Amino acid sequence: MKYIECKNNIEVSKSGTKANPAVVRVHTEKKAIEIYRLCEQKGWKVIVGIEPDKNEDISDVEKLLRDETVERTKFKMPPSRNAPCPCGSGKQYKRCCGK
Q: What is the pTM for the complete model shown?
């Protein structure tokens, strides 16, 4: 199964795949190993860079974790269309997971 996201009419492979690995920048080797093991357990592809002089950026992995949680969320009854989305994005349900 191939996952595709459309962004500005350009097809992009889903993050965390071989075609589009998650890119992470951390300060320490310990943190790099921790991130790498987490991604390995989940089956995600990741590129981890250790750069102590730059700001840490683990947003790709955070997005993958958030997306995984949203996929598993089951509603007894879907929220109203104008209610905030339960995935935590801050958007209205109709503009987020309700599509």
A: 0.55
Structure tokens at 60: 């790709």
CA distance 15 to 60: 8
In Å, the largest CA–CA distance within the chain is 48
**Residue 61, Cβ density class (10 Å: 0-12 exposed, 13-18 middle, ≥19 buried):** buried
- Confirm if 44 and 20 have CB atoms less than 8 A apart: no
* Cβ contact 13:20 at 8 Å: yes
Cα distances (angstroms) measured from residue 32 to each of 43, 65, 90, 96: 16, 17, 30, 32
Virtual torsion, Cα 89, 90, 94, 97, nearest 10 deg: 10
pLDDT tens per residue across span 68-97: 666 555 666 777 888 888 877 888 888 888
